[in-house]
Design brief:
The chain is an alpha+beta fold. The chain has helices at about 10-20, 40-60, 70-75, 80-85, 110-120, 165-185, 235-240, 260-270, 295-315, 330-340, 350-355, 380-405, 410-415, 430-440, and strands at about 25-30, 35, 60-65, 70, 90-95, 100-105, 130-140, 155-165, 195, 210-215, 220-230, 240-245, 250, 255-260, 290, 320, 345, 355-360, 370-375, 405, 420-425, 445-450, 455-460, 465, 470-475. A hairpin with a 6-residue loop joins β23 (about 455-460) and β24 (about 465). It is globular and about 80 Å long. It starts with 11 loop residues before the first helix and ends with a strand. The mean pLDDT is about 95.
């Protein structure tokens, strides 16, 4: 049997990497900063895709695909945009054995190529809105990488829309933030804080950026989805114009929003423990595993047909698997705990005789998570238990976040809090003040929550009047 996982309390980073590798979520590739997403990890991503894609289509969006290669001149048209991405660009200068007349950028994000195409498609207010989403890969040449959390190439979705009015584009931006928050809470079982990014933290080229922020198991923050109101910046750069109802020519208003495979890392870090993954039932590649228990061939011939019968009962309702490997029950229990399967269904010779099975919850330790249920009516019992596990995982993560979020009364108290949690504090909004906080504490403004206490206060750092409360934390 493999050595035990490194404890989270001993070395959180090492614990995280061991889980990704041992649970066969991903492997390192031969290219620095890249990864191979293995079937178990990719199935989790497919389930996440399905949950988001369903929500996107319900709000009127359609999927499309745009090229991987973008002319360098496109990025240079929006100066703030190219300045923000310049250090991370991968650039193609040669192809087919010859030097290219113009270098091509490997897609870091698609605002520019999409802006170019929208300019060809939009002529009248009747052509608007355009509501498009893309499922693709992007490349950002990160210096420090970690599996799922920060890699040179990663998978994501990026939505890009164009509208006739600023109000409509702003409503779209906020709607998609709400979509992300709904998915995070109800599918990933991760509580998030929706908010506006500060001016220094917003997306390059955006007028306003919004994000959902989540607390990981080590009390650091992870940006978990972003939505950007781009104003007319990209429309002006790429000449996206339309004739309005008054027959006047004006620039469109655009948005973009994205969610990536880094949230697989988020699921690991929010829910995982010293035994491995804990996957929320709605997204788990395998929601329940049937483990037959026997000591000899006679017991095996008695138990295996029942195990298969249980699978047949459940297969139309949940994602279920029978573990028929030639391994000990203990090995199998540990293996499925490592992989985070929400529910284990144990059946041995005595269970066959009694017409019962044991249900073992991954989210509860030992005897606390075990119960005996009749084989008759198993489908409803399993469905009900998975629903309970999903809600209990969200409750546990919410209680952890709330217990480690504090409101400092002084800057000294603030510095102590951000060493080990979230600080919810009044902030003046000044860039210089923000930069000094980051320099002195390594904490950043994660977001200015949409839900504000009202009134006014005093900036926790500089003491100037403050109109808003912000979330500060160290982050991935």
């Amino acid at each position: 049997m493999a050595d035990k996982l490194t404890a989270r309390s001993e070395d959180y980073s090492k614990w995280y990497n061991e889980i990704v590798l041992r649970a066969e979520m991903a492997s390192y590739s031969p290219v620095r900063g890249s990864m191979v997403i293995r079937p178990y990890g990719y199935t989790l991503w497919e389930n996440m895709q399905a949950g988001l894609d369903r929500r996107f289509k319900a709000t009127g969006h359609q999927n499309a695909y745009f090229p991987l290669f973008i002319p360098m001149s496109f990025l240079q048209k929006e100066k703030e945009h190219v300045a923000g991405f310049a250090p991370e660009l991968a650039v193609v200068t040669h192809a087919g054995g010859e030097q290219l007349e113009e270098p091509l950028v490997v897609r870091p994000t698609s605002e520019t190529i999409i802006g170019y195409m929208y300019a060809q498609w939009v002529k009248s207010y009747r052509d608007l809105p355009i509501l498009i989403n893309c499922w693709n890969n992007v490349v950002r040449w990160e210096l420090r990488t970690r599996l799922f959390l920060r890699t040179a190439e990663f998978l994501w979705q990026e939505g890009h829309t164009a509208h006739a009015t600023a109000e409509e584009a702003e409503a779209e931006t906020r709607q998609m933030l709400d979509v992300y928050a709904d998915f995070a809470v109800n599918d990933m079982a991760i509580p998030v804080i929706p908010g506006r990014k500060s001016e220094s933290e917003k997306f390059p080229g955006a007028v306003r950026s919004y994000s959902i922020e989540a607390m990981m198991g080590d009390k650091k923050a992870l940006q978990s989805g972003t939505s950007h109101f781009l104003g007319q910046n990209f429309a002006k750069a790429f000449d996206i114009k339309f004739l309005n109802k008054a027959n006047e020519l004006e620039f469109a208003w655009t948005t973009s929003w994205g969610f990536s495979t880094r949230m697989i890392g988020g699921i690991i870090m929010v829910h995982g423990d010293d035994q491995g993954l804990k996957l929320p039932p709605k997204l788990a590649p395998i929601q329940a595993v049937v483990v037959p228990i026997f000591r000899n061939d006679d017991e095996k011939s008695k138990v295996m047909p029942v195990a298969e019968s249980l699978r047949q009962q459940l297969i139309d309702t949940i994602r279920v698997k029978v573990d028929d490997r030639e391994e000990t029950p203990g090995f199998k229990f540990n293996d499925w705990e490592m992989r985070g399967v929400p529910l284990r269904i144990e059946v041995g010779p005595k269970d066959v005789d009694k017409g019962t099975v044991v249900l073992a919850r991954r989210d509860l330790p030992g005897k606390e998570g075990r119960s005996f249920v009749p084989q008759a009516g198993l489908v409803e019992a399993v469905r009900s238990m998975l629903t309970t596990i999903q809600s209990d995982m969200l409750k546990c993560a919410t209680e952890f976040r709330d217990a480690n979020t504090h409101e400092p009364k002084s800057y000294d108290e603030f510095k102590t809090i951000v060493e080990d949690g979230f600080a919810r504090a009044w902030w003046c909004g000044d860039r210089q003040c923000e930069a000094e906080i980051k320099e002195e504490t390594k904490a950043t403004t994660r977001c200015i929550p949409l839900e504000q206490p009202g009134g006014s206060g005093v900036c926790v750092h500089c003491g100037k009047p403050a109109q808003e409360v912000a979330i500060f934390a160290k982050a991935y």
